[in-house]
């Protein structure tokens, strides 16, 4: 005769006594939560990001020609691959004067890429580019660009990076310029400035 197998109960737990049980001593028992009375004069706090008043009419009123465009490292590299002139292609896309802006950290990223990206570095040092100084440490540009467009809503961000695009889409009133089919396109742009709306 074989031994009968004992089936183990799945996820069996020992039953625990509640801390409010009558059998537990008074000093060991869990205290009932004391409700605080709400002060009607106190300022009610909510963690909701405050949108600036410039976005009141559904779009950014600070954004107008000449457009200031924050350029990312990969945007310059992809422009070279697509054989596009940066400033001219921006003007063709927006039908207005464009001022490409480059931050110190983006410049540092391009310099770090080395000899292979010397053409990108030469383009970034173009006198038509406006240089923006950075106060933060390191050369990680994504955080810097997101922080800049959150504080000042007067920029268009030019990037091909999917992660950076995802972060910028969460900020209201900031258009994104990207490259597709060997030309520049713009995402989330108000109709009023003659640019296409997507």
The overall strand count is 6
User: β content, as a range?
Assistant: 5-15%
SSE-based structural type:
alpha/beta
Report the principal-axis shape. elongated
- CATH fold assignment of the domain at 63-185: Rossmann fold
Number of helices: 6
Q: What gap, in angstroms, lies between the N and C termini?
A: 78 Å
Rg on CA atoms, Å: 28 Å
GO biological process, one term: ribosomal small subunit biogenesis
Organism: Pelecanoides urinatrix
Domain PIN: 67-166
Subunit structure: Part of the small subunit (SSU) processome, composed of more than 70 proteins and the RNA chaperone small nucleolar RNA (snoRNA) U3.
In short, what is this structure?
This protein has 198 residues and is an alpha/beta fold.
Can you tag this structure with a few keywords?
27% helix, ribosome biogenesis, 6-stranded mixed beta sheet, alpha/beta, elongated, disordered C terminus, Rossmann fold, 198 residues, 6 helices, single chain
